[in-house]
Amino acid sequence: MRKSFTLMIMMVCAVTAFGQRNVDWSVDTILTNEVTSNTTQGSIFNIEAVFKNNGPDTVLMGDTVAYQFVVLNSNDQPMIAVPQTGLGAYLFNRRFEPGDTMHFHLRLVLNTYYTTSFNCKLRVSSAIFNRTTPGGVASEQTATAANNIYVKPVIWYNPQGWGVGIDDVEVSSIMLYPNPAVNTAVISFNQVNVTEQSNVEVYDLNGRLLHSQQVVAGARECTLNTTNLQNGFYIVKVGNSAFQSEQKIQIQK
Fold first, then answer.
1. Farthest-apart Cα atoms in the chain, separation
2. How far is CA 91 from CA 59, 86, 149, in A?
3. Is a pLDDT exceeding 90 seen at residue 85?
4. 92, 118, 124, 161: which has the fewest C-beta neighbours closer than 10 Å?
5. Using CA atoms, how far apart are residues 45 and 109, in angstroms rounded to an integer?
6. What pTM was estimated for this model as a whole?
7. Mind listing the domains of the chain with CATH numbers?
8. How confident is the model over 210-231, as pLDDT tens digits?
């Protein structure tokens, strides 16, 4: 009879594997449909994925399930990865028979949110390893390794829960207006950090820093004073530990 287990994950070091048993391990499905956000906490991920032992052999105590959760933008570029590098891992403390499934849960809160809802993808990867126990798990062959990864489209909602428009937005961009500017320009953020201030820097086309200022945490826009800038083109860079973005601005007086 098939059994189902629920497991809350912990971050530990990844384990590599070699051995003799053959296990076709798979990410069977992803149950998560959306990412929510609010203006006080930021973005909230409640990720649930189902892992399955497709046999033919049993997963034993001492075997390790390795995993990684990645959020991709609409161009399949990684936005967030847990762990950021390598793999997380969990050591089995019981037998796991062919046909058994495991529900993996991950709750992650980021201190940033986006002002516009957008489409993204959730990619979950997992595999079974054992390099220390006699009769360990053999590396999966190409024919069965494809099901170690599952990708699902999800919506990353803004705090208002707006739907996604026909055109995807560039989720890590800033908007400058007016552009060309005279004495002032407004910088509008699509990504808002609720706990950390952002830095704004203006460079000339030779890479020299001409102006810098800070933006308070949670701000959705700020005003850039361009009075001391001569006519021409400049690069405006905005960022903090969560994101970096830049855009060209023209000064025309």
1. 77
2. 11, 16, 20
3. no
4. 161
5. 6
6. 0.71
7. 4-156 (2.60.40.10), 174-251 (2.60.40.3080)
8. 999 999 988 888 999 999 999 9
